[in-house]
């Protein structure tokens, strides 16, 4: 039972099957990446199901047809948190080739568990922020610190919370609660809410360090 407002768990058989694959410590980097990609399609279909449409027409080989397209005035911004979020943005670009990609670079200080910024491709201010639809991408929502900093980046530019979504593979209850306390109207889409964080801030049972496993930099 999901106890969180505005948190959506994609409860699909293919999600469960591929979560099993990426949790397995014996899974190779190649198999790990492919399983994440399969889950990512499901996450994005959920994350984009409420995008606004407008009426249009198109000429088929036979006749004029009434259709619907995404509202032209709305700009979709894909914001992957480097480096692990890159695997999400590859799929997002496939599904939404018309979206703008704005990379965010931060890493976690392993002692304080706070995010350290090193890259920011977001403009100083947005024209028409009310038309922006933001998808922030990060495989793991652990302490919530990186998620909160990334969301603030957009709310400080006057993007409404309800137009921001955070997409993750796995989320910890501690992180979900922190994000929702500060940004109750931001929607979070995830494939799993795990048990808890350990003393080092890693999600349990989790899958280890997502970035290391994606890019095959796990130290033995």
What does this structure look like?
The protein has about 220 residues and is α/β, with parallel strands linked by helices. It has a single domain, classed as Rossmann fold (3-Layer(aba) Sandwich). It has helices spanning about 15-25, 30-45, 85-95, 145-155, 175-180, 210-215, and strands at about 5-10, 55-60, 65-70, 75-80, 100, 105-110, 115-120, 130-135, 140, 165-170, 185-195, 195, 205. Strands 1, 4, 5, 6, 7, 8, 9, 10 and 11 form a nine-stranded mixed sheet that branches. The protein has a two-stranded antiparallel sheet with strand order 2-3. A two-stranded antiparallel sheet has the order 12-13. It starts with 6 loop residues before the first strand and ends in a 6-residue tail after the last helix.
Outline of this structure?
The protein is α/β, with parallel strands linked by helices and 220 residues long. It contains six helices and 13 strands.
Write out key terms for the chains shown.
220 residues; alpha/beta; 9-stranded mixed beta sheet; two-stranded antiparallel ribbon; 6 helices
SSE order: EHHEEEHEEEEEHEHEEEH
Strand content is 25-35%
CATH C-level category? Alpha Beta
Largest sheet: 9 strands, mixed
Which CATH architecture would you pick? 3-Layer(aba) Sandwich
Give the overall form: globular
- Going by helix content, strand content and strand pairing, the class is alpha/beta
Which segments are poorly predicted (pLDDT under 50) over 5 or more consecutive residues? Answer: none
Terminal-residue CA separation = 37 Å
Question: Care to count the β-strands?
Answer: 13
What is the overall number of helices?
6
CATH fold-level topology:
Rossmann fold
């Amino acid at each position: 039972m999901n106890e969180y407002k505005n948190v959506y768990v994609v409860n699909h058989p293919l999600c469960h099957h591929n979560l099993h694959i990426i949790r397995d410590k014996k899974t190779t980097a190649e198999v790990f990446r492919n399983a994440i990609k399969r889950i990512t399609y499901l996450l994005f279909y959920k994350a984009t199901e409420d995008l606004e449409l407008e009426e249009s027409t198109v000429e088929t080989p036979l006749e004029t047809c009434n259709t619907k397209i995404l509202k032209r005035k709305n700009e979709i911004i894909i914001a992957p948190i480097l480096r692990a979020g890159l695997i999400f943005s590859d799929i997002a670009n496939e599904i939404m080739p018309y979206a703008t990609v704005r990379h965010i670079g931060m890493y976690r200080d392993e002692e304080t568990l706070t995010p350290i910024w090193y890259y920011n491709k977001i403009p100083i201010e947005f024209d028409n922020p009310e038309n922006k639809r933001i998808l922030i991408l990060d495989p793991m929502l652990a302490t919530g610190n990186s998620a909160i900093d990334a969301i603030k980046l957009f709310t400080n530019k006057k993007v409404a919370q309800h137009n921001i979504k955070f997409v993750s593979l796995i989320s910890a209850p501690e992180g979900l609660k922190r994000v929702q306390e500060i940004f109750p109207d931001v929607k979070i889409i995830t494939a799993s809410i795990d048990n808890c964080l350990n003393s080092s801030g890693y999600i349990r049972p989790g899958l280890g360090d997502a970035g290391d496993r994606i890019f095959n930099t796990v130290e033995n």
